[in-house]
TrEMBL record:
Zn(2+) binds at H194, H196, E201, H243. GO terms for biological process: D-galacturonate catabolic process; D-glucuronate catabolic process; pectin catabolic process. This is 4-deoxy-L-threo-5-hexosulose-uronate ketol-isomerase. Pathway: Glycan metabolism; pectin degradation; 2-dehydro-3-deoxy-D-gluconate from pectin: step 4/5. Coiled coil: none annotated. SUPFAM superfamilies: RmlC-like cupins. It holds the Pfam family KduI. It comes from Paenibacillus terrae. Binds 1 zinc ion per subunit. Keywords: Isomerase, Metal-binding, Zinc. InterPro entries: KduI (IPR007045), KduI/IolB_isomerase (IPR021120), KduI_N (IPR027449), RmlC-like_jellyroll (IPR014710), RmlC_Cupin_sf (IPR011051). Belongs to the KduI family. GO terms for molecular function: 4-deoxy-L-threo-5-hexosulose-uronate ketol-isomerase activity; zinc ion binding. Its cofactor is Zn(2+).
Length: 276
């Protein structure tokens, strides 16, 4: 498990491109037969990828979180962004097709991840937050989750928003997760942008063409920076930072938040005139 520490916005102003990438960008999430985890001190969230190909892979506790089991004091959101696969939680099997979501509550002991086919293996993207109580393990199929259309073609941000783990969907302690898909011809997400000082956020970009690139915007509204990203990469967004971006083609991204509250609309909008 890689550790990332919180940074003050005054420090981030002076980071080089490489330093920005070291602090906020998460690459190579899906390594065959391995669990890749990044622990950020931004609300103590863990971001990771699990990529079983020819054998099952277990998500276990570690000395870094001082826990015998991964969910001893945590809850977990899982999205499958690869081929079909299964997640076994304490012996109960949950089948996850592409873009399906599974929430696992605090206290689950055995977590086993498997792919249905080694020729098209599953890729499980995970976000975990601290939990003070236990909510039931719940699956939400992509096909059944409500959707909301946002933006417009003329502003190049026509997109479909789907909320999975939230106040009116899968219940959790503090974790909020969903998925946004950009329509063909649209490239901008979350613009006009915002910040939310009461919780952190992480974006995971996928379904980008191999040669496409995402220009993810971050930093304080009057001190913006950017990171150039590619497919299957994630970026940590501290509470003081904007988070939006544009790519060289259409894409999908998963957003995950944790912090003081779960109110999706609790955000501070940033006027376009404020951006620098």
């Amino acid at each position: 498990m890689e550790m990332r520490y919180s940074t003050h916005p005054e420090h981030a102003k002076h980071f080089t491109t490489e330093e920005l990438r070291q602090h906020y960008l998460i690459q190579e999430l899906f390594v065959p037969e391995e669990v890749k985890l990044v622990y950020t001190h931004e609300d103590r969230v863990i971001i990771g990828g699990i990529h079983p190909v020819n054998k099952s892979v277990a998500l276990e506790g570690s000395d870094q979180i001082k826990a015998e089991t991964f969910l001893e004091r945590r809850e977990l959101g899982i999205f499958n962004v690869g081929g079909s696969g299964t997640v076994k939680v304490d012996g109960e099997t949950y089948e996850l097709n592409t873009k399906d979501c599974l929430y696992v509550g605090r206290g689950g002991k055995e977590l086993i991840f498997e792919s249905d086919s080694s020729s098209k293996p599953a890729k499980f993207y995970i976000v975990s937050a601290l939990a003070h109580t236990t909510y039931p393990t719940t699956k939400q199929s992509f096909a059944d989750v409500p959707s909301e259309s946002l933006g417009a073609q003329e502003t190049a941000n026509n997109r479909t928003l789907r909320r999975f783990i939230h106040d009116e969907g899968i219940q959790s302690c503090q974790l909020v997760m969903g998925m946004t898909t950009l329509e063909n011809g649209s490239v901008w997400n979350s613009m006009p942008t915002h910040v939310h000082d009461r919780r952190m956020e992480v974006y995971f970009y996928f379904e980008l063409d191999e040669n496409a690139r995402m220009f993810h915007m971050m930093g304080e509204p009057n001190e913006t920076r950017h990171l150039v990203m590619k497919n299957d990469e994630a970026v940590i967004s501290p509470p003081w930072s904007i988070h939006c971006g544009a790519a060289t083609g259409s894409y999908t991204f998963i957003w995950g938040m944790a912090g003081e509250n779960k109110t999706y609309k609790d955000m501070d909008q940033v006027a376009m005139s404020e951006l620098r």
